[in-house]
Design brief:
This protein is mostly helical. Helices cover 56% and strands 6% of the residues. The protein is built from 17 helices and 5 strands. The strands form 2 sheets. The chain has a 3-stranded parallel β-sheet. Strands 4-5 form a two-stranded parallel sheet. Helix 11 packs antiparallel against helix 15 and helix 12 packs across helix 15. The structure holds tryptophan. The site of tryptophan has 13 residues, from strand 1 and helix 8.
Length: 367
Amino acid sequence: MEETKKKIILTGDRPTGRLHVGHYVGSLKRRVELQNSGEFDDIFIMIADAQALTDNADNPEKVRQNIIEVALDYLSCGLDPAKSTLFIQSQVPELTELSFYYMNLVTVSRLQRNPTVKNEIKMRNFEANIPVGFFTYPISQAADITAFKATTVPVGEDQLPMIEQTREIVRSFNRIYGEALVEPDVLLPDNKACLRLPGIDGKAKMSKSLNNCIYLSDSEDEVKKKIMSMFTDPNHLRVEDPGCVEGNPVFIYLDAFCRDEHFEKFWPEYKNLDEVKAHYMRGGLGDVKVKRFLNNVVQSELEPIRARRKEYEKNIPEVYRILQEGSIRAEKVAAQTLADVKAAMKINYFDDQELIQSQAERFGENK
Ligand code: TRP
């Protein structure tokens, strides 16, 4: 009888900073929905500290401090340790071992062509000084995913090349050694605005160094201040001027966050976002009004997250305990995959009685 294929999620984040609303609409919110859908047999959410160290080797304290930040962000968004296994990458040494074997299946030029790696090398000015560990992190990411036999990887758009590379590794492995690994599918947000939320300054990416993020852990006041200072259409100078919604960060955020019920609650003059956009484009609708509405919408989304965060902040040792238990469970699963991989690669010498017996006979005959 053929076993029905299990549906398994693995995803994660580097602990290099607090998570922001871009992470939230791009992936976190979806993870919680998937978790609560009951459609998955297993869900693994990983804090990728080992990967964070590939370009922060000289700053381990930063990675260490941000583990608890990311864990709190996860838990406060509604990831539930009773339903999802939350764990820390470095605590599952099997992942490193798998990476080492996968390295044989990937060429240097293939890594050089990975668009995400290329882009990150440029951003970090690594050029001639690329740490090998950083260069090979797509391989380690393939280990993260395959160790849990993940079928589904919910991530942001920037991670697409990583999943593609993982799929290639899986196909090579299975072709050479036999079907031991599962080829994962990527799951991207279906709302276009959520694919890449710009910074509050309109820059394409939210980043700590640009100081243009709204963090999940920001206070109500901080969020309000940031939203009221957001860039809009630079040509929309007077209220009566026609405004542009295309590429306007305030409207991109509204596309990502607002639902029709928000209008009933916060802005009953309009039925939906299309009506607001039409008015803005005609002229006569000021930025401040739109920002106030956006603030109400975002605050209503962040409010329950903040409340849960407060609870977990009261019991930090418990959060570490959740991560420790998750890591123990994750290691068990990864160890099974590693055993399968080693058997497929024929490096399971001591488990293979047939091998020992046949070698004994071979040398016995020579006597
Ligand atoms: N690269 C991801 C990021 O930058 C983190 C990550 C590591 C990850 N391993 C993963 C994501 C495996 C999905 C699957 O946030």
